[in-house]
Amino acid sequence: MTHLHISNVDARTQDLINLCKIKNLVALSLSRPRSRDSGPDLNDRIVRAWHECVTEGEAFQNLRVLVLRFHALSEVSFDRLQALPNLRLLALDQSWDASSNRTVVGDGWSPGLK
């Protein structure tokens, strides 16, 4: 089992997409700087690519925990994340909807402990 935490994410889009190739990844945590203007962001494009990898093959088959800190996602990404077959915990810390600039909780997801 692999747990991967990347803090202050500074990676190309393709590098973030390629995380889905880690076969035995159980927990993934991605944090970026607090400033919305700094560093690359995990975004809808990357989540869409992850979704395609999951539906076309065996990507993220073991992923149970996904932690995202300071990332901009739309509610469409939440729909796509539901395709992760074993995801049990999605933790968001100060993530927001890129289109409306508000914090997000997608349909079908319920907030946990604060």
Describe what this molecule looks like in 3D.
It is a single chain. This protein is of the alpha/beta class and 114 residues long. It has one domain (2-99). Helices cover 22% and strands 23% of the residues. α3 (75-81) links the parallel β3 (65-69) and β4. The radius of gyration is 13 Å and the shape is globular.
As for the number of domains, it is 1
Structural class of the secondary elements? Answer: alpha/beta
Per DSSP E runs of 2 or more residues, the count of β-strands stands at 6
Q: H/E series, N to C? A: EHEHEHEEE
The gyration radius over C-alpha positions equals: 13 Å
What is the first-to-last residue Cα distance?
A: 28 Å
Oligomer: single chain
Q: Kindly state the mean pLDDT as a whole number?
A: 79
Strand percentage lies at 15-25%
Q: Tell me the overall shape.
A: globular
How would a textbook summarize the main sheet? 4 strands, parallel
Count of runs of 4 or more consecutive helical residues:
3
Taking pLDDT < 50 over at least 5 consecutive residues as the criterion, the unreliable ranges are: none
* Percentage of residues assigned to helices: 10-25%
> Strands of the biggest beta sheet: in what spatial order?
1-2-3-4
